Amino acid sequence: MKLKKICFVTDEYDHPDFHATGGIGTFIKNLAYQLTERGYEVHIFTYLYEPGRESLIIDNGIKIHTISRVNFLTENLKRLIHKLSFLKSKRKLIDAFIYKVSFTVQLYLFSFKNKFDLYEFNDYLGDSCFFFKKNVVIRCHGNAKTLHEHMGYPRSDIPVFFEKIAFKFHKNIVCVSEYCKDTISESFDLKVKPQVIYNSVKSDYSLIEDLERENRITKSIFFFGSLRERKGLKIACLVVNRLIEKFPEVSFHIIGKNEANNYENICLNLLSSQAQLRTKYYGAMEQSEALRNLKNAHVVIFPSFGENFSLALLETMALGKIVVTSNIPSFNEVIVDNENGFLANSEDEYVQSIQEIFLGKKNINIEQIEINAYNTIVNNFDNRILVNENIKYYESILN
């Protein structure tokens, strides 16, 4: 069977008509672009919570179909069930079940009309749990079960309920790193070994000529990612406090979604008065806008406690930026300390590494590390390379 038509089922996609997305939405868009350029017919099937937002959007040849899981039937069924007092403790699970069924029914109808060769789902929330078709791929960017068990995120029982069903039925699993493969296999007791295909980003092949001429903000520290405690937001703030005491000209720049109002609850509570005056919060941004601002960074900090694989890190290195990251397994699959970036095990080590970068210590060849960071992405994590691995894997499923 020849691969011709592919459907990505997702609640994240990088497009101006949708809410600002993180790395997953950007990854799906880039992969869809690469597949379309190679002649494949690519569709995006995505759901929105607001009723009445069904539409068809064409994005560079990619057909984006948006539906709503909320409709007259779902809301009336919910109201009926909520009147049953003996189900009160299960209301949230039942509501989620109703929306999953509504979404899946619409996906079945859509699939019957279009007859796709292959479907790809994200692992988070277990959206593939009731879609009992063959040729389904689950790509593991990060699900509620492994995020809780291996990375310290809060427990989320309802998503885990559906994720378990999805992993029990579907066997074509793609993991975005070796670390991801190990944790997924353990958490869901997988009998079939997942396929590892690293995430990828778009590289600008002409950028390397301009690295030394960029108009960077001297002694600027950027935090790029969702504003979450597990992303190391607290550590970033404490590091900035200490560095600004030594270098008053230090500036702190934050790009990312304000999860749970953490800019106010964490940043403004932890940053010193001096640091707050030197802090700029950009909010959540579309990828292109975020990268335009990131080009001005002197150092970008990734103090995360746990990641399956960070697209934000890849995008930053693709700009030839100096990164200082936590010493965690998935980052070790990308970063070689003092060669294409820096690894840190503690707040003190972040401060020491960034201080040495700012001072231009003789034992640190900053220009070469910037070039190495860029070349790491071009040679190992570029869309144009890894799209071929994805196609090969898709075809192996069909045949």
From TrEMBL:
UniProt-listed GO biological process terms: lipopolysaccharide biosynthetic process
Domain Glycosyltransferase subfamily 4-like N-terminal: 22-202
Gene3D superfamilies given in the database record: Glycogen Phosphorylase B
Keyword Transferase among record annotations: yes
Annotated ranges, domain Glycosyl transferase family: 219-361
Keyword Lipid biosynthesis set for record: no
CDD domains found in the cross-reference section: GT4_PimA-like
Keywords linked to the UniProt accession: Transferase
Entries under InterPro entries matching the protein: Glyco_trans_1, Glyco_trans_4-like_N
Gene Ontology MF terms in the entry: glycosyltransferase activity
One matching Pfam family: Glyco_transf_4
PANTHER family reported for this sequence: GLYCOSYLTRANSFERASE WBBK-RELATED
Designated name of the protein: Glycosyltransferase family 1 protein
